[in-house]
Design goal:
Length: about 290
Protein backbone atom coordinates (compact mmCIF):
# COMPACT_ATOMS: atom_id res chain seq x y z
CA UNK A 1 0.00 0.00 0.00
CA UNK A 2 2.82 2.39 0.83
CA UNK A 3 4.48 1.75 -2.54
CA UNK A 4 1.26 2.58 -4.36
CA UNK A 5 0.82 5.80 -2.42
CA UNK A 6 4.46 6.72 -3.04
CA UNK A 7 4.08 6.15 -6.78
CA UNK A 8 0.90 8.24 -6.86
CA UNK A 9 2.63 11.05 -4.98
CA UNK A 10 5.65 10.85 -7.27
CA UNK A 11 3.42 11.34 -10.29
CA UNK A 12 2.04 14.49 -8.67
CA UNK A 13 -1.50 13.13 -8.85
CA UNK A 14 -4.14 14.84 -6.74
CA UNK A 15 -6.17 13.08 -4.06
CA UNK A 16 -9.84 13.36 -4.97
CA UNK A 17 -11.32 13.19 -1.46
CA UNK A 18 -8.71 14.50 0.95
CA UNK A 19 -10.04 18.07 0.87
CA UNK A 20 -13.55 17.06 1.89
CA UNK A 21 -12.34 14.70 4.61
CA UNK A 22 -9.74 17.13 5.99
CA UNK A 23 -12.30 19.93 6.28
CA UNK A 24 -14.63 17.64 8.19
CA UNK A 25 -11.92 16.62 10.65
CA UNK A 26 -10.86 20.24 11.12
CA UNK A 27 -14.46 21.23 11.83
CA UNK A 28 -14.82 18.46 14.42
CA UNK A 29 -11.65 19.55 16.19
CA UNK A 30 -12.74 23.18 15.94
CA UNK A 31 -15.89 22.38 17.91
CA UNK A 32 -13.80 21.24 20.90
CA UNK A 33 -13.46 24.10 23.38
CA UNK A 34 -9.72 23.75 23.72
CA UNK A 35 -6.47 24.80 22.07
CA UNK A 36 -4.19 21.83 21.46
CA UNK A 37 -0.51 22.45 22.12
CA UNK A 38 0.99 19.75 19.86
CA UNK A 39 -0.63 17.75 17.08
CA UNK A 40 0.40 14.71 15.02
CA UNK A 41 -1.21 14.49 11.58
CA UNK A 42 -1.07 11.21 9.63
CA UNK A 43 -2.69 12.15 6.35
CA UNK A 44 -2.74 11.10 2.72
CA UNK A 45 -1.63 14.68 2.01
CA UNK A 46 0.55 16.30 4.72
CA UNK A 47 -0.89 19.51 6.06
CA UNK A 48 -4.41 18.93 4.78
CA UNK A 49 -5.78 18.81 8.33
CA UNK A 50 -3.02 20.63 10.21
CA UNK A 51 -3.03 23.67 7.94
CA UNK A 52 -6.57 24.88 8.73
CA UNK A 53 -6.14 24.13 12.44
CA UNK A 54 -2.89 26.07 12.62
CA UNK A 55 -4.48 28.98 10.74
CA UNK A 56 -7.42 28.98 13.18
CA UNK A 57 -4.97 28.83 16.11
CA UNK A 58 -6.58 25.64 17.41
CA UNK A 59 -3.13 24.02 17.37
CA UNK A 60 0.15 25.44 18.59
CA UNK A 61 2.51 23.05 16.78
CA UNK A 62 1.91 20.31 14.21
CA UNK A 63 4.02 17.33 13.15
CA UNK A 64 2.89 16.08 9.74
CA UNK A 65 3.76 12.48 8.89
CA UNK A 66 3.75 10.15 5.91
CA UNK A 67 4.23 6.40 5.87
CA UNK A 68 6.62 6.57 2.89
CA UNK A 69 9.51 8.71 1.72
CA UNK A 70 8.17 11.29 -0.74
CA UNK A 71 9.53 10.99 -4.27
CA UNK A 72 9.43 14.71 -5.03
CA UNK A 73 8.79 18.17 -3.65
CA UNK A 74 5.00 17.87 -3.97
CA UNK A 75 4.72 16.37 -0.46
CA UNK A 76 6.73 17.77 2.42
CA UNK A 77 5.98 15.90 5.66
CA UNK A 78 7.81 16.66 8.88
CA UNK A 79 8.71 12.99 9.34
CA UNK A 80 8.33 9.60 7.68
CA UNK A 81 6.84 7.03 10.06
CA UNK A 82 5.57 3.49 10.28
CA UNK A 83 1.87 3.93 11.05
CA UNK A 84 1.81 0.63 12.92
CA UNK A 85 4.78 1.61 15.14
CA UNK A 86 5.29 5.39 15.10
CA UNK A 87 8.60 6.34 16.74
CA UNK A 88 7.62 9.03 19.23
CA UNK A 89 7.84 9.14 23.00
CA UNK A 90 4.66 8.20 24.91
CA UNK A 91 2.46 11.19 25.65
CA UNK A 92 4.03 13.34 22.93
CA UNK A 93 0.80 14.84 21.60
CA UNK A 94 -2.55 16.09 22.83
CA UNK A 95 -4.16 15.73 19.38
CA UNK A 96 -3.69 13.06 16.71
CA UNK A 97 -5.57 13.25 13.41
CA UNK A 98 -5.60 10.60 10.68
CA UNK A 99 -7.00 11.31 7.22
CA UNK A 100 -7.56 8.39 4.80
CA UNK A 101 -4.50 6.30 5.62
CA UNK A 102 -5.41 3.89 8.42
CA UNK A 103 -7.71 1.66 6.34
CA UNK A 104 -4.65 0.26 4.52
CA UNK A 105 -2.92 -1.09 7.64
CA UNK A 106 -2.40 -4.78 8.29
CA UNK A 107 -2.82 -4.32 12.05
CA UNK A 108 -5.37 -1.59 12.68
CA UNK A 109 -6.00 -2.55 16.35
CA UNK A 110 -2.26 -2.46 17.03
CA UNK A 111 -1.91 0.93 15.33
CA UNK A 112 -4.79 2.37 17.36
CA UNK A 113 -3.11 1.15 20.52
CA UNK A 114 0.13 2.84 19.45
CA UNK A 115 -1.66 6.14 18.82
CA UNK A 116 -3.42 5.91 22.18
CA UNK A 117 -0.02 5.64 23.85
CA UNK A 118 1.26 8.71 22.02
CA UNK A 119 -1.50 10.87 23.48
CA UNK A 120 -1.26 12.79 26.70
CA UNK A 121 -4.02 12.05 29.24
CA UNK A 122 -7.24 13.64 27.99
CA UNK A 123 -5.72 13.92 24.49
CA UNK A 124 -7.99 13.59 21.45
CA UNK A 125 -7.72 11.11 18.58
CA UNK A 126 -9.79 11.59 15.42
CA UNK A 127 -9.39 9.67 12.17
CA UNK A 128 -11.30 9.18 8.93
CA UNK A 129 -10.95 5.99 6.93
CA UNK A 130 -12.78 4.30 4.09
CA UNK A 131 -15.75 2.16 5.16
CA UNK A 132 -17.21 -1.09 3.86
CA UNK A 133 -19.53 0.45 1.25
CA UNK A 134 -16.62 2.16 -0.53
CA UNK A 135 -16.44 1.25 -4.22
CA UNK A 136 -19.26 -1.27 -3.82
CA UNK A 137 -20.29 -0.67 -7.45
CA UNK A 138 -16.81 -1.50 -8.74
CA UNK A 139 -16.67 -4.57 -6.53
CA UNK A 140 -19.98 -5.84 -7.91
CA UNK A 141 -19.06 -5.13 -11.52
CA UNK A 142 -15.73 -6.95 -11.24
CA UNK A 143 -17.32 -9.95 -9.50
CA UNK A 144 -20.06 -10.31 -12.13
CA UNK A 145 -17.68 -9.91 -15.07
CA UNK A 146 -15.04 -12.28 -13.71
CA UNK A 147 -17.59 -14.95 -12.80
CA UNK A 148 -18.94 -14.76 -16.34
CA UNK A 149 -15.59 -14.85 -18.14
CA UNK A 150 -13.29 -16.83 -15.84
CA UNK A 151 -15.80 -18.89 -13.86
CA UNK A 152 -14.50 -17.59 -10.54
CA UNK A 153 -13.85 -14.43 -8.57
CA UNK A 154 -10.58 -12.88 -7.40
CA UNK A 155 -10.45 -10.03 -4.84
CA UNK A 156 -10.12 -6.91 -6.99
CA UNK A 157 -11.13 -4.25 -4.46
CA UNK A 158 -9.72 -3.97 -0.94
CA UNK A 159 -12.06 -4.80 1.95
CA UNK A 160 -12.76 -1.90 4.29
CA UNK A 161 -13.84 -1.70 7.93
CA UNK A 162 -17.51 -1.69 8.91
CA UNK A 163 -18.88 1.05 11.16
CA UNK A 164 -19.67 -1.25 14.10
CA UNK A 165 -16.25 -2.90 13.94
CA UNK A 166 -14.48 0.48 13.97
CA UNK A 167 -16.44 1.61 17.03
CA UNK A 168 -15.76 -1.61 18.92
CA UNK A 169 -12.05 -1.42 18.13
CA UNK A 170 -11.83 2.05 19.62
CA UNK A 171 -13.45 0.79 22.82
CA UNK A 172 -11.42 -2.41 23.01
CA UNK A 173 -8.12 -0.59 22.52
CA UNK A 174 -8.93 1.63 25.50
CA UNK A 175 -10.12 4.98 24.15
CA UNK A 176 -12.54 6.82 26.43
CA UNK A 177 -15.83 8.20 25.11
CA UNK A 178 -15.39 6.52 21.68
CA UNK A 179 -17.68 7.58 18.84
CA UNK A 180 -17.90 6.26 15.28
CA UNK A 181 -20.10 7.69 12.53
CA UNK A 182 -20.19 7.57 8.77
CA UNK A 183 -20.98 9.60 5.71
CA UNK A 184 -21.54 8.29 2.19
CA UNK A 185 -20.35 10.33 -0.74
CA UNK A 186 -21.55 9.61 -4.27
CA UNK A 187 -19.09 10.80 -6.89
CA UNK A 188 -20.03 10.82 -10.57
CA UNK A 189 -17.47 10.13 -13.29
CA UNK A 190 -17.50 10.55 -17.04
CA UNK A 191 -16.40 6.93 -17.42
CA UNK A 192 -15.35 3.85 -15.48
CA UNK A 193 -11.77 4.41 -16.63
CA UNK A 194 -11.87 7.89 -15.10
CA UNK A 195 -12.90 6.30 -11.79
CA UNK A 196 -10.03 3.79 -11.99
CA UNK A 197 -7.66 6.66 -12.76
CA UNK A 198 -8.84 8.49 -9.64
CA UNK A 199 -8.31 5.38 -7.50
CA UNK A 200 -4.74 5.05 -8.74
CA UNK A 201 -4.12 8.77 -8.25
CA UNK A 202 -5.14 8.39 -4.60
CA UNK A 203 -2.75 5.46 -4.20
CA UNK A 204 -5.67 3.17 -3.41
CA UNK A 205 -5.18 0.49 -6.09
CA UNK A 206 -5.56 -3.13 -5.00
CA UNK A 207 -2.74 -4.05 -2.60
CA UNK A 208 -4.12 -7.35 -1.29
CA UNK A 209 -1.53 -10.09 -0.89
CA UNK A 210 -4.06 -12.69 -2.08
CA UNK A 211 -4.98 -10.88 -5.28
CA UNK A 212 -4.42 -12.65 -8.58
CA UNK A 213 -1.01 -12.01 -10.12
CA UNK A 214 -2.19 -12.54 -13.69
CA UNK A 215 -2.49 -9.41 -15.82
CA UNK A 216 -6.09 -8.39 -16.37
CA UNK A 217 -7.29 -9.39 -19.84
CA UNK A 218 -8.89 -6.91 -22.17
CA UNK A 219 -11.96 -9.12 -22.24
CA UNK A 220 -12.39 -8.95 -18.46
CA UNK A 221 -11.81 -5.20 -18.33
CA UNK A 222 -14.23 -4.62 -21.19
CA UNK A 223 -16.94 -6.78 -19.65
CA UNK A 224 -16.48 -5.12 -16.25
CA UNK A 225 -16.91 -1.69 -17.83
CA UNK A 226 -20.07 -2.85 -19.65
CA UNK A 227 -21.49 -4.32 -16.43
CA UNK A 228 -20.71 -1.16 -14.49
CA UNK A 229 -22.46 0.98 -17.09
CA UNK A 230 -25.48 -1.31 -17.19
CA UNK A 231 -25.96 -1.19 -13.44
CA UNK A 232 -24.64 2.16 -12.26
CA UNK A 233 -24.87 4.69 -15.10
CA UNK A 234 -27.20 7.69 -14.94
CA UNK A 235 -29.35 8.94 -17.79
CA UNK A 236 -26.58 11.29 -18.94
CA UNK A 237 -24.13 8.39 -19.28
CA UNK A 238 -22.01 9.25 -16.27
CA UNK A 239 -21.35 6.51 -13.71
CA UNK A 240 -21.71 6.63 -9.92
CA UNK A 241 -19.18 5.54 -7.30
CA UNK A 242 -19.78 5.33 -3.55
CA UNK A 243 -17.16 6.33 -0.99
CA UNK A 244 -18.12 5.63 2.62
CA UNK A 245 -16.14 7.68 5.14
CA UNK A 246 -16.04 6.35 8.71
CA UNK A 247 -14.85 8.86 11.29
CA UNK A 248 -13.80 7.68 14.74
CA UNK A 249 -13.04 9.86 17.74
CA UNK A 250 -11.85 8.99 21.21
CA UNK A 251 -9.89 10.36 24.15
CA UNK A 252 -7.06 9.05 26.22
CA UNK A 253 -8.62 8.34 29.61
CA UNK A 254 -8.35 11.02 32.30
CA UNK A 255 -10.00 11.43 35.69
CA UNK A 256 -11.70 14.67 34.58
CA UNK A 257 -13.77 12.90 31.90
CA UNK A 258 -17.41 11.99 32.29
CA UNK A 259 -18.14 8.51 33.55
CA UNK A 260 -21.37 6.52 33.82
CA UNK A 261 -22.84 6.33 37.31
CA UNK A 262 -22.64 3.10 39.27
CA UNK A 263 -25.73 0.90 39.06
CA UNK A 264 -28.05 1.72 41.97
CA UNK A 265 -26.54 5.14 42.64
CA UNK A 266 -29.47 7.14 41.24
CA UNK A 267 -31.10 9.58 43.67
CA UNK A 268 -34.50 9.71 41.97
CA UNK A 269 -36.88 6.97 40.87
CA UNK A 270 -37.51 6.83 37.12
CA UNK A 271 -41.24 6.51 37.73
CA UNK A 272 -41.22 9.80 39.66
CA UNK A 273 -39.30 11.55 36.91
CA UNK A 274 -41.81 10.32 34.32
CA UNK A 275 -44.84 10.97 36.50
CA UNK A 276 -46.13 7.41 36.21
CA UNK A 277 -46.79 4.36 38.40
CA UNK A 278 -44.17 1.71 39.08
CA UNK A 279 -45.02 -2.01 39.18
CA UNK A 280 -42.73 -4.79 40.42
CA UNK A 281 -41.22 -7.03 37.74
CA UNK A 282 -43.65 -9.81 36.85
CA UNK A 283 -46.67 -8.02 38.35
CA UNK A 284 -49.56 -8.62 35.92
CA UNK A 285 -51.01 -5.26 36.95
CA UNK A 286 -48.15 -3.61 35.13
CA UNK A 287 -49.23 -5.15 31.84
CA UNK A 288 -52.72 -3.57 31.74
CA UNK A 289 -54.09 -0.07 32.22
CA UNK A 290 -55.80 0.79 35.52
CA UNK A 291 -59.55 0.21 35.64
CA UNK A 292 -61.87 3.16 35.21
CA UNK A 293 -64.50 3.84 37.88
Amino acid sequence: MRRRRARAAGRGAGHALIGTVARDIAERVGEVNRRFARMLEVSAVPGAVAGPLLAAQKVGEAVTALAFAPAGPALAPSVVIDEEAPAFAPGSFDLIAGALTLHGLNDLPGALGQFLGLLKPDGLFVAALFGGATLSELRQAFAAAEAEIAGGVSPRVMPFAELGVAGRLMQQVGFALPVADRDRLTVRYDSVLALIGDIRAMGEANALAERTRKPMSRALLGRMIETYRERFADADGRVRATFEIITVTGWRPHESQQRPLRPGSARMRLADALGTREFPAGDPAGSRPPRRK
